[in-house]
């Protein structure tokens, strides 16, 4: 009896090995499990015989039955694992991808050189107490010319210099000096402001674009002198281009300032060392901005009393400053939006 039971137990594992090899699916394995280990399965059938054994034989056969149960469970488990591995391998084989492809990276933009120059200029002027203001780009004749002491017959009004809008009354501002007028019309002295912005001229060649950018500055109170003008602008240039930069004020003419000057800074590309320097043409100086003491005629237009009020103004081109600061030799690069150019700054 005992021998029969032991034989049946052994045949369970032998049979199982044969069946497991034929099963290809997880469902098939579950069925097999039920066949061998289920309530009505083959192991249960064999165990029914245990009751008929003598009490000496029962423990040994019981222990063997447990062992066989563990073996069956173990084989079914590893068969399941191997099926799962196969299906993953199959999926991977079908779903190939190229692991040598570069990863996706975020494209981070950077600040346009003109905006960088403006941010730096603003930082310097705000440190000196200037407020940043703005004015309209579409102007009337009065704010662009008349109030700035540019009479109707002045050459600066040449039709070709300016974009007039249809009715001739409006135009695209040709300089940011217009903002001086707007600010002084709206507030009394003292004024300390800068005004950045786009300006337009009917010009287009290697060194001119129809649109470019300026910063205007205005400092007005009851005792401003040309000394203040020189101090503020020298400090600005030295902070922008380096402490060692030299400046000189050259007499000039602007209708809205008297006296007027142009400010030249020393050429930091050649520092007077290269007589054929392409940037300063060997002179050692670079023209950088126009400035002067506000003309009394301008104060009169905005209702300030020129007997009591003095002030200075200045205007500079941002593109020119960026070209000098970054060593850029073609103005048009600023407007082409070529990333290979823009990413260098
Ligand atoms: N508006 C002048 C221009 O566009 C620049 C300028 C010169 C502005 C002298 C000023 C100044 O305020 O005082 O060429």
Describe the structure.
This protein is an alpha+beta fold. It folds into 2 domains: 2-94; 113-342, BirA Bifunctional Protein, domain 2 (2-Layer Sandwich), CATH 3.30.930.10. The protein is 42% helix and 19% strand. It is built from 12 helices and 9 strands. It has helices spanning 2-22, 26-37, 42-48, 57-94, 113-127, 141-144, 178-186, 226-241, 296-301, 318-326, 333-336, 339-342, and strands at 131-132, 138-140, 170-172, 191-200, 211-221, 247-254, 257-266, 285-294, 310-317. It has a 7-stranded mixed beta sheet with strand order 1-4-5-9-8-7-6, with helices on both faces. A two-stranded antiparallel sheet has the order 2-3. The longest helix is centred in the first third of the chain and has 38 residues, at 57-94. The protein starts with a helix and ends with a helix. The structure holds 3,4-dihydroxyphenylalanine. 3,4-dihydroxyphenylalanine (DAH) binds at residues 175, 177, 216, 254, 257, 290-292, 313-315.
